Amino acid sequence: MLHTADLGRRFKSFFPDSTEIWGCRVPGRVNLIGEHLDYNGLPVLPVALERALCCVFAKAAGGTVSLANANSMYRADAFENVAEIAPSPQAHWSNYCKAALIGLNRALRVSTFPGMQLLVSGNLPSGAGLSSSSALVVACALAYLQVLGVRLGKDVSRVALAELLAGAEHYVGTRGGGMDQAVILNARAGHALKIDFFPLRLEHAPLPRGCSLYVCDSGMRVEKSGDSLHRYNAGPALCRVLTALVEKQTQEEIDEGFRLARLGELCHGLLCLTYREAEELCLRSVPDARWSVKAIAARLGTAPDEVRRRYLGETPEPAEGFPLQARLRHVMTEFKRVELARDALLAGDTGTLGELMNASHESCARDYEISVPALDDLAGAAHDAGALGARLTGAGFGGATVNLVPDAREGQFHEHMARYYAEWRMNAAQCMFKTLGGGGADYFGVLST
Ligand code: NG1
User: How far is the CA of 422 from the centre of ligand 1 (A)?
Assistant: First the structure.
């Protein structure tokens, strides 16, 4: 990662006419447990990383936003900051910046649109399930707030900004939840962050003593706004169908007028069910393992085309039907695991935490079907190396695992994983790192004038 002075010099080489240069540091995150729950309004337990994006920026004279990246894989780009900013081609990195600007322009009712120059650098791998995409959205948002003269934590709270940017990121095409933006903006060093949604509620839980967290990269890249877009969006789409089926059941059993926006609302709001009650209601709502579009439509009393339009979007229908029961089982059991993991963290019970992480990996693989052999093997290798818990982290389909390793076994863990990576002709020193839990995103002030 470039040092602050180098960043300033590098910035000047891209944008020689700039005067007051600012910077911000925005961490990535690893999710300890609670996968594909955030968009259901159910809790998650991520940890911010020490690895981060650094964004150096300055206000520009006109309305042009100019982007440069220290990583030459990402070509420089420029666009006009206007009321309706047109998207770049799908998966282009400038869309993450556009997402932030559009979100802030709308929320803050900006009417004259300033330009800015940004240089992005950092040591956060992209497509590794470590939230580099949301880190980029947050970095561009912090830069833009500074240019607008809006103070973070004073004029706009970190929680409000996280909620706003979670919605704004949908511009890139993925229908994710709000986990990443919330932890990136609100993390505390040395802590995991238990996040509840709608409205956002945060609880910092200290990471356990006597154990460390290791992130192990599978080397398989996941471009969520590119090749993996439809695979990722199938998760939220099937959860929308599940929500409609549970709503239907609740209307029949309790109240005709009942509306359910997300599965998470079962346990608070109007119904306030206990976990057991919610689980039983879910089981009654989805009695069959697999569902065709026709069967879903028949149950909801609507037309198949309406089911596709309202819930499924571009998600293709498998010949054997959608595995709705398995998806629901993951969501409900993972919800319970997050609550138990939070309790285990607070009690310093690393044995239980490890078991919950292992069960989460199983559930992600078997019921949510977001694992791949490379991630299963990596988690298996970590167990053999002495980890108490090992699981895929983030969206899945590739990316990284998170591993809970007792301090007394660190040496053995390193040796074993180095051998494992060597078998795949990969370098453990580049693929594996330890985190003690990083702090949230922040500015690092003026670089030069
Ligand atoms: P990553 O791992 O950064 O691709 C995605 C979503 C999260 C969450 C996880 C799965 C975005 C920006 N991020 O994270 O909201 O749903 O998958 O738990 O869409």
Answer: 29
